[in-house]
Each structure stands twice: as C-alpha cells, then as structure tokens.
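Private note to self, pasted from the team thread so I don't lose it. Backbone tokens:
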C-alpha cells in the first residue's frame, strides 16, 4: 500500500523529466538544422530561384530535411516540385554540371552541381493495385498532397524554396525529437498503398535507432503477408540497407515479432528453436543476432572496413541449417551435424529468390559453408598443408572468414572465450608466416599449363587440367617445389596413369 503514494509522487517528476529531455532534443534538432542549412544554402537557394522565376514550386523534402535536422545531411539532396520532368530538366540547363533521367515515368530527374547530387521529382500520388507488383503513379498538384503520400512523418517535412518556409503538416519534427516512427495517416492505408513501407519501418528503426509506433507495429503484424506482392529486388534492396545500418538487430527483431520476416526471410524466425527442458543448447536466434553484432564490431579488421554486407549477412545466415539438422541424443544432448553444408544451400536458395547477384551469393554461401572449419584446428594440430587448404578454400574472403569465425564465439565462459581467441590468434599468425614464405594468397602449382604440355608432349585438353590440379594438390601438401622436383612429380603421376 505504501508504494502507491510514492509511485504517484514520482509520476509528475518523470513527466517533467521527459519534457525536459524532449526540449533538449528539440534544441539539438534546431541547432543541427541551422548548421546544415547554412552549409547547403547556396545550392538550394539558387535552384529555388530558378524554379520560382519559371512559375514553379520546389521544396527540399523527405530524407534530406530529416537528415538536416539530425545533423547528418550528406551530399544527396531530394526535391519535390510542381514542374513536370521535362520542365525540371530544362530549368537546370546551364546551371547543373550534368543532368540525367532517373525515371522520367516516375517524374524523377537527376542532376549534379559541384559536390551535390540532386534528385528532383514531380509531385506524386501513387498506390498499389491489390494484385500488382508495380506502383501506379499519377502526378500530383500540391506539396501538401505529396507530403501526405510519404511513408513516415519524419519523412513528410519540407522546406519550400527559395524562401525556406518549413512545412510540417504531420508533426514530423515532434516525432523526430521523440525518436518515433509514425505514418502520416492510418498505417493500414499507407501499407496498403505500398507494402514495402513495412520493410522501410524496420530499416529506419535500425538506421535511425527510432522506436516504432504501436499502431504501425499492429498494422505490420496484420498485413505482413501483403509484402508478397512486392518484387524480390525491392525487398532485397531494403534488406541490404537494413543489414548495413548501425543497429540491424532493431529492425530484424521487429520483422520477426510482426511476422514480416516469415514472409521475406523465413530462415531467421526458424532459428527460434524450442529449447530442451534442461537448456543444454543455445537459443540459436539470440546467438545469431549476437554473432551479427560482434561481426559488426570486428569490421575494422577488414581491409575496407564496414559496413560489409557480405560479412554481416553471412553472420546472420551462418546457422540457418540448424533447424533442419537438429537431433536429440539419448543423453539429452543436441547435435546439428552438417548444418554448415545445409545452411549454405538454404542461404543460396534464399538469396536467389531475392535476386542477389551471383558474386554476392557465392561469397556469402562460401562463408556459411566454411564457418565451422576452424573448429578442427584444435589447439594447433593442423599441419601446414591444412593451413594452406584453409586459405585456399577461403580465397579472397579470408579476412571475412576471420571476422565471422571470431564473431561466432558467444560463450559467457570467459576462460573458454579467451582460449578460442588465443587459438585463432595462433592460426592467423601461422597464415601470416606461410604467406610471407610462400606467397600463400596466390597459391598455384609450380608448373603452369604451357610447361605441363611441353614436359608431357601433349596438346591442350582435359589431361592438362588434371595434371594442373594434381600439382596444385602437391603444392598445398608439400609447399613450394623446385622446377626439377615438380617435373619429376609430374612425370611420376603421368607414368602411373599411363601404366
């Protein structure tokens, strides 16, 4: 009973604290906006004057306004205008360094002015037919109408030019300060018009670190299956942006909890395996998200840093073979034999369905297939031959495999974690030593194809490739050989085949 008065006394204090926090955030937003607008003023004011002189309206809009308010505006600027595409293109002649057609049918013209990249789009009104994968686009006639069709309130703000009049009909500024994602109108109507906006909610949660309004969450939950009408390419592009965001766990968790992941990446929610009554195996879903986060933390080990989609997506998919391979043993233990092989096949099928390129698909699948290889290293028992094969099989993704393998350690046992780290340190040191001694990154046989044909007096054909592969295996097994030793080994192999 005594707790209640104390709790009620705290409520006004908590409300006041929230109000102060919101005020602080709002003043930060205002400071950011002033700084960013001063930086971009020359280009937006000049562009606004040109359109105004022609009797057209133009406004900086959407993500550009949002990012300016957040103090993170890049060199890409988005505009909306009353002008039709051909008029926009004409008005930038002699002012833009270059212009190009980004999608005239959708009203968008691209341009470059110095270091700024511009996208200028005619006021639009678009919606999806319930059975169509493609939006039906109609040009609109007002800024208010254009803002009303935008996905979220924080993207439905504009700065009319050249006077820099701020338009915020849906309280996007307040939502930006409150770090929340809401839709300008009913979330169900917004997602019915473009179901990809459900994916964008997850992506913006990850990208901006914002909470998602409960009505938006409810709408996604009830409408998740509608994402099926969106093309695989559009879903893929949003997924890549989400995975490459600063906090992908936020968006992925939203997708799983609402059922959206079941539609576009069903392998992920499938990882939430029912734990056995003695809790003798890890929660694979939580383990996977932790591996992803740890891989992100290790991206500074990669030659080009991050975000690295291949490494991140391999971390997300590395255990997707476990549900198919889970077996309960008589002693209560659980095994997942060959989940690396099964997981690579499942990953390939999913990435093909999402229309990923063959190069990206191969890279991710190779990492998934190889992610357990290190565990055969023990405490350093591998021969130099085994180390060479590890490097050969990883190929140009060796640095990514290093990151994935290190990230895959999520044990809370500090002694075990330290032992695994030291063991992998030892493997990397051995790889570095062999690389210095043998040019390990470009392992080739000690004889090339022309030398093989000359020594064996044969013409180009399958036998040359077979001889080449035999010498490559010897190179991996023994290390570098002299010309004479390689020639003797080749002749011995050929004699055995001929005999």
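Design output:
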């Amino acid at each position: 009973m005594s707790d209640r008065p104390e709790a009620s006394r705290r409520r006004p204090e908590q409300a006041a604290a929230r109000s102060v926090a919101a005020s602080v955030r709002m003043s930060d937003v205002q400071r950011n906006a002033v700084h960013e607008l001063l930086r971009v003023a020359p280009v937006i004011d000049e562009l606004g004057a040109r359109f105004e002189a022609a009797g057209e309206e133009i406004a900086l809009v959407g993500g550009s306004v949002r990012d300016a308010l957040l103090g993170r505006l890049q060199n890409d600027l988005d505009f909306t205008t009353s002008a039709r595409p051909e008029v926009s293109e004409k008005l930038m002649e002699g002012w833009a360094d270059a212009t190009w057609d980004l999608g005239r049918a959708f009203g968008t013209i691209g341009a470059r002015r110095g270091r700024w990249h511009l996208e200028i789009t005619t006021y639009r009104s678009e919606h999806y037919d319930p059975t169509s994968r493609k939006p039906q686009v109609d040009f609109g006639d007002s800024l208010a109408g254009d803002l009303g069709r935008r996905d979220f309130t924080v993207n439905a703000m504009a700065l009319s030019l050249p006077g820099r009049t701020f338009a915020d009909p849906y309280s996007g500024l307040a939502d930006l300060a409150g770090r929340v994602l809401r839709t300008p109108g009913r979330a169900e109507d917004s997602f019915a018009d473009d179901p990809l906006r459900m994916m964008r909610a997850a992506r913006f949660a990850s990208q901006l670190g914002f909470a998602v309004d409960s009505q938006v969450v409810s709408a996604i939950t009830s409408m998740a299956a509608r994402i099926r009408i969106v093309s695989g390419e559009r879903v893929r592009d949003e997924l890549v942006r989400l995975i490459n965001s600063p906090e992908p766990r936020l968006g992925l968790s939203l997708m799983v909890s609402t059922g959206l992941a079941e539609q576009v990446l069903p392998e992920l929610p499938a990882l939430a395996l029912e734990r056995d009554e003695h809790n003798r195996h890890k929660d694979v879903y939580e383990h996977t998200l932790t591996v992803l986060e740890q891989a992100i933390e290790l991206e500074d080990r990669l030659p080009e840093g991050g975000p690295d989609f291949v490494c991140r997506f391999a971390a997300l998919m590395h255990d997707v073979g476990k549900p198919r391979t889970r077996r309960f043993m008589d002693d209560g233990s659980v095994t997942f034999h060959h989940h690396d092989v099964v997981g690579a096949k499942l990953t390939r099928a999913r990435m093909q369905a999402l229309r990923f390129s063959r190069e990206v698909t191969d890279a991710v699948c190779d990492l998934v297939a190889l992610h357990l290889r290190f565990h055969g290293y023990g405490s350093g028992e591998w021969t130099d031959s085994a180390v060479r094969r590890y490097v050969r099989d990883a190929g140009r993704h060796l640095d990514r495999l290093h990151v994935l393998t290190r990230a895959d350690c999520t044990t809370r046992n500090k002694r075990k974690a330290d032992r695994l780290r030291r063991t992998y340190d030892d493997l990397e040191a051995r790889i570095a030593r062999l690389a210095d001694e043998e040019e390990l990154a470009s392992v080739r046989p000690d004889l090339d194809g022309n030398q093989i044909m000359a020594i064996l007096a044969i013409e180009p054909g399958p036998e040359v490739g077979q001889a080449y592969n035999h010498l490559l295996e010897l190179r991996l097994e023994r290390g570098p050989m002299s010309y004479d030793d390689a020639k003797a080994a080749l002749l011995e192999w050929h004699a055995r085949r001929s005999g």
